[in-house]
Amino acid sequence: MRGGVLIGGATSDAGKSMIVAGLCRLLAREGIRVAPFKAQNMSNNSVATLDGGEIGRAQAAQARAAGLEPSVRFNPVLLKPGSDRQSHVVVRGVPAGVVGAADYAQWRERLRSVVLADLESLRADFDVVIVEGAGSIAEINLRGSDIANLGLASAAGLPVLVVSDIDRGGSLAHLFGTTAILSPDDQRRVRGFLINKFRGDPALLAPGVDRLAELTGRATLGVIPFESRLWLDAEDSLAAPVGARLGPPGRIPDGPDLRVAAIRLPRVSNTTDVEALAAEPGVEVTWVADPAAVATADLVVLPGTRATVDDLHWLRERGIDRAVRERIVSGGPLLAVCGGFQMLGATIVDEVESGSGAVPGLGILDQSVRFASRKTVRRRAGTVWGIAAHGYEIHHGVVAGATDPPWLMADDGTGEGVERDTLWGTHWHGLLESDEVRRALLTRVARARGRPFRPGVVPFEVVRAEQFDVMADLLAAHVDRGALAAVIEGRTDDPPVITHTLT
């Protein structure tokens, strides 16, 4: 098999990321050299690559599904929202500036050439490239500057399959309307549909699928069932809302041994840091945004953020800063990661991210933070409590003047982070994916809280790999493989243009 396909969405968050991961896994299991690609990702969930760049977390997951090491080639443009109107632009893994919605057109041609060059190189090196679109492909107001959806498909000669999330309702209308609103040339790119997250009897849906084919001239290649075992965050959407619980549904029917409260900052980044905690049996992880939840949890996680100073102000507005201080004074366990760790110091000097200058921190740790113009992006390895550990750093802030003992010891002999009784802080993302480190931390939390904790036995890497296999199995069972292969290999005829209205 040789070729490629763009998996586009009828809406945002339709499940494109997981479907691309599943297709990568399915083809890789069959010995096909397959790679993922997302031209332009908007996400604050990112991963450091071996070559010192950063890419969206979803593309790193898709690369692992394909049996590949994450690379900046898989996600050449990453937009990291710093506010509602501006995003930090990362090009081929390196920060390239700040862009607003109004001036993005100035970047268009430069980014287009980067995207097309990287996609062309992947298609030369791999048998199949599975491309993930961004949001909905029906945003015709953005078509002129598009480099991630039909603009990319047109320039690269890619066929398109459109995914709709039927769990939201209106799926058939989404698929029809998404196709019909496109220009004739763009419509011809759309070769079929995928319906995702279906619950119930497929026979009840069949008449609607048949009618959709009559109206559009395009077949639905598969109706993929809803699967509760798919819970790890491979999406690029905003983090789960306040009150949402991580982990497979129904895993803790009799109540948790440990309750973890992850503070849902407005611009939270790398939310996946807490996923590994939710993979432990008996541990309940919930996103929270109120002081009471901070006071009562067994462990509080103050996560990373793309806007450290702004989110520090948000903590103060809600009174969560006081709850965090009171928790530390009372000996309540708290884990602070990256931006959350930087907030704990006496002062933050930021002329880079927010331009706010010197801002008082929470004053819990005797340290200061100054934002450097050069971003630190690197993989790390070392030890925690004598246990081998690994992670990665993505931050501008540099800590100075720390008087507390370091929590980690990096392989280069430098100390990192802070450990003070049951307060732990670090810049390392992904640290809790190390099974022994995660379980040692939770054992200390349980001891401090007088709670039971029974460590799991399944490695987190296995939990993550199982997600890819579950999705691959769903696709193998519920997608017309012959039709899919024909689309990927470019063996389908041009479909009709929708010109009629419904009667």
UniProtKB/TrEMBL annotation:
The active site is at C338, H429. Pathway: Cofactor biosynthesis; adenosylcobalamin biosynthesis. Pfam families: CbiA, GATase_3. Residues 259-436 form the CobB/CobQ-like glutamine amidotransferase domain. InterPro entries: Class_I_gatase-like, CobQ/CobB/MinD/ParA_Nub-bd_dom, CobQ_GATase1, CobQ_synth, GATase_3, P-loop_NTPase. The keyword Amino-acid biosynthesis does not apply. Keywords: Cobalamin biosynthesis, Glutamine amidotransferase. SUPFAM superfamilies: Class I glutamine amidotransferase-like, P-loop containing nucleoside triphosphate hydrolases. Residues 7-231 form the CobQ/CobB/MinD/ParA nucleotide binding domain. Catalyzes amidations at positions B, D, E, and G on adenosylcobyrinic A,C-diamide. NH(2) groups are provided by glutamine, and one molecule of ATP is hydrogenolyzed for each amidation. Belongs to the CobB/CobQ family. CobQ subfamily. HAMAP family: CobQ. This is Cobyric acid synthase. It comes from Gordonia defluvii.
